[in-house]
Amino acid sequence: MHDGQPVVRRRLPAAERRKLILEAGLDAFAEGGYQETTLDEVADRAGISKALIYEHFPSKRDLYREILETWIGDLLGRVLAAATAAGGQSEARLVAGLDGFLAFVEERRDAWRLLIRHRASDDVSETFDRLFEEVARIIGALMAPEMPASSLPEGAAFDLVLDATSRQLMGSVTAVANWWDEHREVPRQQVLEMVMEFAWVGMERASAGERWSSPER
Which of 55, 77, 147, 156 is the most buried (most CB within 10 A)? Predict the structure, then answer.
């Protein structure tokens, strides 16, 4: 009651309610992971009933999948936009793309934990695989001009080496980003420099003709 009159609760438009559910789901899944989080917990965070969630999402899996798709799109968009805006040489584009990746980790800690740190069950694992594949593909495209055929191991196919190298770099970036999530006092620029020291210096040495050889036993 307010001044003797009943308080009328405004019913949110469907689009606003859906957005509220997605935001609450992101918070809940990022904190507890997919398996441990229930729709009751999501409903509590959103301040709505679980029945309202089912009006928008048939299941927890469908809610989780849409959240993943949203943030995968955001992450890939950042990487591509940053690399494209950099123009110029491959090194500048790679730096910009990696910085866009790290900016996402820095600014959307909850989404990063959802995408990478909290692995989901098998019924949505292909979404994680697609994220890794897409980012590795982007990195490979940025690295390709800096990998002359003369820098490849003897008899190795260029496409295979490029794919393996981009996956190796993506794996190292992911590992460093996970480490950074626990050491937020380290500035993003320093993290970027660590990644480039690992990736670019090694590529330059290989392009110059240097090769690793097994030590004599």
Answer: 147
